[in-house]
Amino acid sequence: MHRDGDLLAAAAAARLVTRLVDAQAARGSASLVLTGGRTGIAVLEHLRATPARDAVDWGRVDLYWGDERFLPSGHAERNETQARRALLDHVPVDPARVHVMAPSDGPFGDDPEAAADAYADELAAAARPEDHGSVPTFDVCLLGVGEEGHVASVFPSSPAVYEAERSVVAVRNCPKPPPIRVSLTLPAIRRSREVWLMTTGAAKAAAVSMALTGAGEVQLPAAGATGQRRTLWLLDSAAAAKVPELFTPPLA
Ligand SMILES: O=C1O[C@H](COP(=O)(O)O)[C@@H](O)[C@H](O)[C@H]1O
User: Fold this and answer.
1) 152 CA to middle of ligand 1, Å?
2) Which residue minimizes the CA distance to atom 12 of ligand 1?
3) Which residues make Cβ contacts (< 8 Å) with residue 24, sequence separation at least 6?
4) Tens-digit pLDDT profile for residues 189-216
């Protein structure tokens, strides 16, 4: 737990440098799933600002998105646009390793189902035999958490939260604008070695507490976002306010 959102973002950025460097040392490359939202983008801004970012070989990082708002390319509300402005335009990424979800004016036109299927194919093409399936094992999956407990664009009691087969789905009638999105599913998120759930502010406190104390993933998708090796909650004190003491170490 961190005193405020800015400290949380700085700490998460520092952790991420270490994690990516370690993954590259162990496997030659690292894979990272990016999130949209205030905290997720703040982490990327901190990453841009820290000199330690140069310890990462950005040309050997595979970048994916947990979800995307289905809007035209370059739209200010696209998670991709925000991530590029915050970080990706400032570090030497390999464009072939930046796996964006298609925009609404892209190769699939205004068809989010086709965009989702294409992203699932892209994930399947990146998976290796040791991944045992059609999704690569991501080193770190970053996720924001919505007030009602959504992660990526998997919303409570929505069709996406029941998806057990597909790795990527189109999301329609999304309760948070914009209404059409493309999202990884919970089974795809759970292919990550580490899932980091990051959120700030009192409005998130109830969702965080419920996710940590036994809520089901249909009612609270954040509860179903777990990593194979580690599930890390990065919170500020306001978002952690309702979490039982048992779960909260002293302030960092
Ligand atoms: O719309 C979205 O919202 C969530 C959470 O955003 P926040 O601003 O409340 O942190 C985010 O995780 C997701 O990627 C994004 O598309």
Assistant:
1) 7
2) 144
3) 30, 56, 57, 60, 61
4) 999 999 999 999 999 999 999 999 999 9
Residues 6+ apart with CB under 8 A from 146: 155, 176, 204, 207
Residue of 32, 71, 77, 145 to test ligand 1 pocket, by largest number of atoms within 8 Å of CB:
145
Q: For the complex shown, is ipTM > 0.95?
A: yes
List the chain domain ranges.
5-247
| Residue minimizing CA distance to atom 8 of ligand 1 | 37
18, containing H or E segment: helix 5-27
Q: Which of 219, 157, 162 is nearest to 187 (CA)?
A: 162
Which residue, judged by its Cα, is nearest atom 16 of ligand 1?
36
Closest-CA residue, ligand 1 atom 13, reads 36
Question: Under DSSP, is residue 39 helix (H, G, I), strand (E, B) or coil?
Answer: helix
Give me 46's structure tokens: 């901190």
Q: How distant, in Å, are the alpha carbons of 113, 172, 178 from that of 110?
A: 9, 12, 14
Domain covering 5-247 in this structure, CATH number: 3.40.50.1360
What is the tens place of the pLDDT at every residue in 6-64? Answer: 999 999 999 999 999 999 999 999 999 999 999 999 999 999 999 999 999 999 999 99
